[in-house]
Amino acid sequence: MAELPRLGAGLRLLLASQGVAPMALKVPLLQRLGPQRAARMAGHMAPDELYEMIVNLPVDFLAEVTTHLDPRLILDTYLRLPETLHLDVARELLARGYHATAARYCECFPPVKVKMLLFGLNDPDGVLQIARHIQNMDLIVDALRSVSVGYLCTLTEAAVRSGNVAISVRVLGGLPAQRQADLCAHLPPATLKRLLPPLLKASGEALRVLLPERLREPSTEPGI
User: Fold this and answer.
1) Residue 44 gets which letter from DSSP?
2) 65-77, pLDDT tens digit by residue?
3) C-alpha of 60 from chain center
């Protein structure tokens, strides 16, 4: 667990007002302190007070706070927050280019909640940015293990289109060979041409033998 940051006198005073001052006063005060100070304070707050504070703060301010805050310091509270808020903050982070921060917070979720987040974003390019920066790639693989072939195709096409074939191979390579074969059978030829050689190289014969006969032509072999 990460260490809590030390607080200045102003933040200690605000903490001392927990349960006393109304939230309508504390929320604007916290905003005036700024996102960095708010982040320093978050780990010191009582969980219920922190929860109420978070759900009353503007999403753009919360997105800035997250860039200064280790999510492990507020993990229990973070996991309790509404799904809609998780989505709103993730969208804001991606819109601002804070991809590493979005990935760091995503890693706090179990696979089932990661799956919900990725679906809820409805943004293949945003999902790819999270995948690019996430440390625990197995988490993404587990989250995508049971999604539809159509959704996997959408993500794969976005990856190839944006030059992120390597990320797609890393994710798809962790899925069962049959799932990979099903995906390949549904991809457009131009996408498959870019994806299949490195995917075959990563997955080996287990994938090759499951591919439809039409995809085993010499033109799809690695190095051709």
Assistant:
1) T
2) 999 999 999 999 9
3) 18
